[in-house]
Specification:
By secondary structure, this protein is an alpha+beta fold. It is built from 14 helices and 18 strands. It has a 6-stranded antiparallel β-barrel. It has a 6-stranded antiparallel β-barrel with strand order 13-14-15-18-17-16. Strands 3-6-4-5 form a 4-stranded antiparallel sheet.
Length: 522
């Protein structure tokens, strides 16, 4: 694949031969991206005709889009805070799309032809939109100036009468889009609350969105068929779309009409339940389980089409300090209340002394036997909570342990209360470096156990958690196991007070560092 050169020769001597390969290193995506960034900055600083600048920018942009999937692998779905190389890769991506925006903005005087002008404005909106969306891919809060610039850019395109002019999509020659559809892509992506998505869910939404834009409109007046307050964006603001009822009425409001999109989402959900194929389902089924697709469709419907109903239970504001265990070792200790030991091992001298003297192992001895990984707790704060079993939490920026989307945690809000088992369902790094997290509570009655494959008795036991069946709530018995250790259908040995064999069933939840499987005792 030939790639355009990052170093564009100045002046009129430039031709297609001189706009050649941009591949600074075929094996180093980051180096190629940095080369593109330098080329874009260089191009924007030259005094050349807008037509020349635009032609070169288009080639560089196509190469950037080709590099995007490879570059994202460095940070998409990775735990926070990002490692140095991951953060560097993400920052380079953001800087590149901001540079593209500046370059395309210099070309807005290119022509009086509406199609040519609309194409430039669409590229500028797309570049800013990509910078905003990449924040979501890395679970980072979007800076207000980016939103301010995007809204202002669309307002300018609209004022020039170019918002509805169809122009070709350069990377997909058979398709067209408008400034409005490009703007809507970013608004919908943000309104979907991408901080609640896993990497696979983020990829699914990005894959679906282009085909769904035809079902969404941006209006100057509220949709006539909206049963609830629609989403709206204030073009003079520095934020994305919000509930229209929460915004001050003005001529700068633009309303999202998602009625047809809601019908489309319902249609796909019905097909999914009836096991009927659709292009949307077929595209993501290899990467997401059936149940996960259904949850994602429901989430998108609530966020886009039933705005304001997703948290109808209304969370209670709280300011409660909590101690949080963020590794399987620490979670197991908090749940079981004792240091993990391999079943069958002899007691230590300290433990034998406690048993002979007190009849039990004292808390002091337990803590002396703990490893740093098992005893590690972090101070977090519960900022709000809901009756359905979810917590809004915040962690200060001075803590550096990495937290992944779907990570298992144990939360204790007081020394007298039992720890609560939960999973991180929403992640966002704020501007000050603090971490905002949404935690879905699983159960408060988990027990610590040990598990291993029974065919290899010399194998050491692994930490695990058991959740017994709840007949009243029709919940099956499940085991929380380290991710990827034991497949469905496997027969394993579980040890609590005694050894017993259990057969694992289906995976009902797959997290960042764990899997939860149904099991039956044999």
């Amino acid at each position: 694949m030939a790639a355009p050169s990052p170093f564009i020769e100045p002046s009129h001597r430039r031709d297609s031969a001189q706009v050649a390969s941009v591949r600074a290193s075929a094996d180093d995506t980051h180096a190629a991206l940095v080369a593109l960034l330098h080329a874009t900055h260089k191009l924007s600083s030259e005094s050349i005709a807008s037509e020349q600048r635009l032609a070169a920018l288009e080639q560089l942009r196509l190469q950037a889009i080709q590099l995007l999937p490879q570059q994202r692998r460095h940070y998409i779905g990775h735990p926070l805070p990002l490692a140095e190389d991951e953060r560097r890769a993400w920052e380079a991506q953001i800087a590149l799309w901001q540079a593209f925006y500046f370059g395309f903005a210099l070309c807005t005087d290119i022509s009086k032809d509406p199609a040519a002008s609309a194409s430039v404005w669409a590229r500028a909106l797309d570049s800013l939109g990509r910078a905003i969306r990449e924040h979501g891919w890395a679970y980072r809060a979007v800076p207000a100036p980016l939103w301010k610039e995007l809204n202002s850019c669309y307002r300018s395109a609209e004022a020039c009468g170019l918002d509805a002019v169809s122009v070709p999509v350069a990377e997909q020659a058979t398709q067209t889009h408008t400034c409005t559809s490009v703007f809507l892509t970013t608004l919908l992506h943000d309104a979907a609350n991408s901080y609640a998505f896993s990497a696979a869910q983020l990829a699914a939404v990005e894959q679906w969105l282009p085909g769904w834009l035809q079902h969404t409109s941006l209006l100057r007046t509220p949709p006539s068929n909206a049963s609830r307050s629609p989403l709206a964006v204030d073009l003079s603001s520095s934020t994305g779309a919000h509930l229209a009822r929460e915004l001050t009425p003005s001529d700068q409001l633009r309303y999202l009409d998602t009625g047809a999109l809601g019908a489309k989402l319902r249609e796909i959900a019905v097909a999914l339940r009836e096991n009927k194929p659709t292009p949307e389902i077929d595209a993501v089924l290899p990467h997401l389980p059936h149940a996960a697709i259904e949850r994602l469709l429901t989430h998108l419907y609530v966020q886009w089409c039933s705005a304001g109903t997703g948290r109808i239970e209304e969370r209670r504001d709280a300011a409660v300090r909590a101690q949080v265990a963020v590794t399987m070792h620490a979670v197991h200790f908090q749940i079981s209340g004792r240091a993990f030991r391999q079943p069958g091992l002899r007691y230590t001298r300290e433990e034998e002394h406690d048993l002979a003297t007190f009849g039990h192992i004292t808390e002091r001895t337990e803590h002396r036997l703990l490893t740093g990984r098992s005893s590690a707790l972090e101070p977090w704060e519960v900022v709000n909570q809901s009756s359905s079993g979810s917590l809004g939490m915040c962690r200060k920026p001075d803590l550096s342990s990495r937290i992944g989307h779907g990570q298992l945690v144990a939360i204790r809000t007081s020394s007298g209360s039992p720890p609560m088992l939960g999973t991180v369902q929403r992640l966002r790094t704020e501007a000050d470096g603090s971490l905002s997290a949404g935690v879905r509570l699983i159960r408060a009655d988990a027990r610590g156990v040990a598990v291993r494959a029974p065919t290899t008795p010399s194998t050491q036991y692994e930490r695990a958690l058991v959740l017994e069946s709840d007949e009243d709530r029709k919940l099956p018995a499940t085991l929380v196991l380290p991710a990827g250790q034991f497949p469905p259908g496997a027969v394993i040995e579980m040890y609590a007070n005694r050894a017993e064999q259990v057969r694992l069933g289906a995976i009902i939840e797959r997290g960042f560092d764990f899997e939860r499987l149904v099991f039956e005792r044999l």
